[in-house]
Design goal:
This protein is α+β, with helices and mostly antiparallel strands and 714 residues long. Strands 1, 2, 3, 4, 5, 6 and 7 form a seven-stranded antiparallel β-sheet that branches. It is globular. It starts with a helix and ends with a strand.
Length: 714
């Protein structure tokens, strides 16, 4: 009986629990209103920020050197060791390196991006030697001027600069960079959220080798010789097309046909017919009389007669020259047609000048009334005025503007180069008016910054800071970030040390670019990265720091050729967008100087093995892009897999060593049922091709050495 009652009670409880669901699902005959609930508020509560004065941790990435020589990490590397507000008797143990000499005379100009808004109570700095005063300034927003400035009295102990300011940026300055502190310590508290850091864009596609492989040359080079690659970085002295005897008090005239070095119209036309893309690199002139007194940087006075080399408006001469070049050789035709019937075959009359202005002419179609206008008011040239010839897609703004091994006259600081680049890119966002900047002449042109010596990421970051402080868009004014790197190391030979050329793997050429690639992928994923100079001499002499030296059974020319191919392969997988070999034509085979024998063509005009190797890589796998590295399980063997749009594969196989290593009968899997083996060889611009046996399991067997071989599927 007890069990019966228990079962009955359980049934009643179940019915009571199910009743709401039965009522909701059944037809009760009454109008029902669905139950609504208010969703929970998922907005996180505002961050509660403490207002206690604390030591603010500052990392190297928050520091920007406007002049480009300070070892930034050394300024903040002893954060956990020192706390001068609490104990001023504990001193830092190291000091960051500076440039020394004339480089220090450029001054100390250091910006700290705090990454959020902060209340700053004080800044401490310690200087071991100098007693020079340091001025500390602050500002809240990137486009503000530095407003709060306090000078600390220099002394050989901790100096406290009391601030009492809310800001986002701090700035330290002194007349001489030898005053750079051993350590900087900032006190205060955060008053806003941190600036968001973009998520790094992951690369999923790589350029084809034909899009990737370039070389350096100039108008004197044979177009046929330049066809070892597809992009030609053309060294171009500014005065070749805006010659000194044409300069006057007004803007200079340009010449493109009758120049001291040749006919650029013809050179570009021939290159275009051969499928070559020319990238003019308009180098600054050494005619100091045109520029800021005693300096070769192309600046001119401001309206008040003063110079400000951090101001984009001072670079009107160079920005105007870039406009002229792009107007002629870019894609934008300055001739327009308005009105009438676009589908009508126009019957034009004769051109008539507008109010006697020979730079603006119009003519009218007698059939439909369409009006064609040629507006060349911003075009200056001796000879026929032409626009929109369509010969160039890119233009580069100078060569190695950061060179610091000669004299201050030739050096551009990050802020100076950023200002020049902004002027030449788009006339500093149009502030310079008509006739200035590449984008003003042709919105489709892509602008490469002047190729920097080395891969100085901190220098580029400082250029980016200038853009944030001086451009409304806050963006780096360029389409291409451009650097140079040569593979060389200091080695002991006998009892002496020499700087010699080493292989791209030993140097770590691809790895050297990775920090720059990561920074670009994070902050500017739409911009390209180019390596526009790399290469090796073949002299075999220690007077050249980039010369190769014979080993095993390889000659210097063979080593240059092998390392060239290996470098292009490594770089094509590194995340950069183009690489340019330095260079096409050599100078003198008997000259052991740096770069005298780095050409693909020797001093007698004959093609070296390297020319044929480069041409073979281009003709064999030019339509293919890097896909993956094949794991070999060996340190002495590398395999890269490439593929084209149709699914055809290519495999590059080589030993990444420099001692004559060979790996015989290595077997790996390919994704085709038939394949050819292509070997690089002198005098063969397509290599030597032989059939390769593909086993039923899809594997092939090859002999590998330090000279790469290619496996191409059919």
């Amino acid at each position: 009986m007890k069990n019966v009652w228990i079962r009955a009670l359980s049934l009643v409880l179940c019915l009571l629990m199910l009743a709401p669901y039965l009522i909701a699902c059944g037809d009760t005959g009454a109008e029902t209103t669905p139950v609504t609930t208010t969703p929970a508020d998922t907005t996180p509560p505002p961050e509660v920020l403490p207002t206690d004065i604390v030591k603010i941790r500052i990392t190297k990435d928050a520091l920007y050197d406007e002049n480009g020589f300070i070892e930034l990490e050394g300024l903040v590397d002893e954060f956990d060791l020192v706390d001068p507000a609490a104990d001023p008797t504990v001193y830092p143990e190291s000091k960051p390196k500076t440039g020394g000499g004339w480089k220090d005379q450029l001054g100390l100009a250091l910006t700290i991006d705090l990454g959020a808004d902060y209340y700053i109570s004080s800044v401490f700095y310690y200087n071991q030697l100098s007693r020079e005063n340091i001025t500390v300034s602050a500002k809240s927003n990137r486009l503000d001027h530095w407003t709060t400035s306090v000078t600390g009295i220099g002394q050989t102990r901790w100096t406290e600069v009391k601030m009492d300011v809310e800001c986002h940026y701090l700035h330290l300055s002194a007349p001489d960079a030898s005053s750079t502190p051993a350590e900087i310590v900032v006190y205060g508290y955060r008053t806003s959220a941190y600036d968001p850091v973009p998520t790094r864009a992951e690369r999923t596609e790589y350029p084809t080798l034909s899009e990737f492989m370039g070389l350096n040359g100039n108008i004197a080079a044979s177009v046929t010789n330049l066809m070892a690659g597809t992009y030609v970085r053309e060294y171009h002295n500014w005065l070749w097309t805006e010659m000194s005897d044409r300069w006057g008090t007004d803007l200079p005239y340009a010449a493109y046909i009758s120049t001291p070095v040749g006919n650029f119209d013809s050179f570009y036309m021939m290159a275009d017919m051969k499928g070559l893309k020319v990238v003019p690199c308009i180098m600054f002139t050494d005619d100091h009389a045109l520029f800021e007194s005693g300096q070769s940087r192309p600046s001119s006075p401001l309206a008040d007669g003063t110079y400000d080399s951090d101001n984009a408006l001072t670079y009107n001469l160079y920005a105007g020259a870039i406009y002229q070049y792009v107007a002629r050789y870019g894609s934008n035709d300055f001739t327009t047609i308005e009105g009438g019937d676009a589908n009508h075959e126009h019957d034009w009359g004769r051109y008539a000048a507008i109010e006697g202005n020979d730079l603006i002419k119009t003519r009218t179609c007698s059939g439909c009334g369409a009006v064609q206008t040629q507006n060349y008011t911003t075009i200056r040239v001796s000879g026929a005025k032409k626009t929109g010839l369509g010969y160039i897609d890119y233009i580069e703004l100078g060569n190695e503007p950061n060179l610091d091994w000669e004299h201050v006259d030739d050096y551009h600081s990050p802020f100076q180069l950023a200002a020049l680049t902004s002027a030449s890119y788009d006339g500093h966002e149009g502030a310079m008016g008509a006739g200035y900047g590449a984008k003003t002449a042709d919105p489709n042109i892509k602008v490469a910054m002047g190729g920097l010596a080395g891969i100085p990421l901190d220098y580029i970051r400082s250029m980016d800071l200038w853009a944030k402080f001086n451009r409304q868009d806050g963006e780096l004014p360029m389409d291409v970030i451009n650097v140079h790197s040569y593979c060389e190391e200091n080695v002991k030979i006998g009892n002496r040390y020499y700087v010699v050329g080493v292989s791209p793997e030993q140097f770590g050429l691809a790895e050297a670019l990775q920090d720059l690639v990561e920074w670009r992928d994070t902050y500017y994923p739409d911009k390209e990265i180019w390596l526009t100079e790399f290469g090796w001499d073949t002299s075999g002499k220690y007077s050249s720091s980039v010369s190769v030296h014979e080993y095993a059974d390889y000659t210097t020319r063979q080593i240059q050729a092998m390392w060239l191919v290996r470098a292009y392969l490594l770089l094509s997988a590194s995340g950069i967008d183009k690489a340019h070999w330095f260079m096409c034509d050599g100078q003198n085979d008997d000259d052991g100087g740096r770069f005298a024998t780095c050409g693909l063509i020797d001093g007698n005009g004959r093609k070296k093995e390297s020319w044929y190797y480069m041409r073979t890589l281009l003709t064999t796998m030019g339509d293919m892009a890097f896909v993956e590295e094949i794991e070999t399980g060996r340190d002495d063997l590398m395999i890269y897999h490439y593929k084209n749009a149709e699914g055809k594969s290519g495999y590059a196989v080589w030993c990444p060593t420099s001692d004559g290593t060979k790996v015989e009968n290595y077997t790996f899997t390919i994704d085709g049922s038939a394949a050819d083996l292509v070997e690089f060889a002198d005098k063969q611009d397509h290599g030597i091709t032989s059939a390769l046996t593909v086993n039923p399991d899809g594997t092939v067997t090859v002999n590998a050495s330090e000279r790469p071989v290619l496996v191409i599927t059919k």
